[in-house]
Write a structure and sequence with these properties.
alpha/beta
Length: 174
């Protein structure tokens, strides 16, 4: 009888532990309304996924604890994606990644800093595009642009594929 009770207790504890670990890693999502923009800036080690489309929107995904501290500021034709002031970046090193999905109509400028990574979900098409990666950020983009300006510094990388007519590039600091 004692063995059966211990077995039942162990099974219940095991099931409860699995249930709690599944909910601990559950992804939350936050939709953010934005007006028309053509300039994006991202920081704080977040991953940015870009899709060119007919609408403009921002969706932030990650743990509910992490995404509550993400803000999207809009000023003129630019959006800035970052953590609230005073937020501890320690969650980045605990595997709590933030993924930001941005759909845009036209993009002229993109800046990534602070270990953020940027990816294209489809080919980014633009007449003029200014790219800037700094402080350990990485760009992995598919492009079709006429005039491209690229600045990479501070241990950042840029892996670009696609087509273009003119390119001005500079790299510094690692």
């Amino acid at each position: 009888m004692k063995f059966t009770t211990n077995l039942k207790t162990s099974l219940i504890l095991c099931f409860a532990t699995m249930l709690l670990s599944v909910t601990a890693f559950a992804q939350a999502s936050k939709n953010i309304s934005v007006k028309s923009f053509n300039d994006i800036s991202i920081s704080s080690g977040m991953d940015l996924y870009l899709t060119q489309g007919n609408t403009e929107n921002v969706v932030v995904k990650g743990s509910s604890d992490a995404i509550k501290d993400v803000i999207v500021e809009q000023s003129g034709t630019g959006i800035r994606i970052k953590y609230k002031e005073g937020v501890n970046w320690g969650r980045i090193f605990k595997g709590q990644s933030i993924k930001v999905y941005v759909t845009y109509k036209n993009l002229k400028s993109l800046s990534a800093t602070g270990g953020s990574d940027v990816y294209t979900e489809n080919t980014l098409k633009s007449d003029v595009l200014n790219l800037n990666a700094s402080a350990g950020s990485d760009l992995k983009l598919s492009l079709a642009v006429k005039d491209l300006s690229l600045t990479v510094s501070g241990g950042s990388d840029a892996a670009l594929k696609g087509s273009g007519e003119n390119m001005q590039a500079s790299a510094s600091g690692g």
